[in-house]
Design a protein that fits this description.
This protein is 62% helix and 7% strand. It has a two-stranded antiparallel ribbon with strand order 1-2. A hairpin with a 2-residue loop joins strand 1 and strand 2. It is mainly α. It has one domain. The longest helix is centred in the first third of the chain and has 42 residues.
């Protein structure tokens, strides 16, 4: 314990323990449901923020790769996501944890979206599948909506996002295996 409160490492460890505890809860009391929902909301916030971070890093990474190619140098390793993220909640700052496979998948989708390797609806569909998997892991009754900011942005641009997602190929989830 640090002199002025918990260290960042302590806060990250707590975030992981809270996620693991929520995933391990077997009951369905109001208290357990509320705890699982609180952790799920953190996970959704983490997913949204991680997707945006990936898009920002993809832009910078793509510029660096182009410069390396122009200079005849090997491309650097792509950026990696963090399983831990500081979020702002109604009660202040809180740390969130996402298991590595989810964090990696969301990050790669954010990079693919920014690099225009996948469309907005495809990114939304794929990230929603990850979000749904987390919801199942946490035993939520109802799925939370992921990337709502992107849905809203595309809708404002005149796209019928739900229709675009519905029109995607049924085997569209195969892309997750590549991630």
């Amino acid at each position: 314990m640090a002199l002025f409160g918990p260290t960042e490492k302590d806060l990250k460890n707590t975030a992981k323990k809270e996620y693991d505890k929520a995933a391990a809860l077997k009951g369905d009391t109001r208290k357990e449901d509320a705890y699982r929902m609180r952790i799920a909301l953190r996970a959704r916030g983490h997913i949204d923020k991680l997707f945006v971070e990936a898009a920002e890093k993809a832009e910078k990474f793509n510029e660096i790769v182009m410069l390396c190619i122009a200079d005849g140098k090997p491309a650097p390793e792509p950026p990696k996501p963090s399983q831990y993220m500081k979020l702002i909640s109604a009660s202040g700052e809180v740390w969130s944890y996402l298991p590595e496979e989810y964090a990696n998948a969301v990050f790669k989708l954010g990079m693919k979206y920014q690099s225009m390797h996948i469309t907005g609806p495809k990114a939304i569909q794929q990230v929603q599948m990850i979000n749904d998997a987390i919801g199942m892991e946490l035993r939520l009754e109802n799925s939370l909506v992921a990337l709502e900011f992107l849905r809203n942005q595309l809708t404002e641009e005149g796209m019928d996002v739900d229709a675009e997602i519905a029109a995607l190929e049924p085997d569209a989830d195969d892309d997750l295996d590549e991630i």
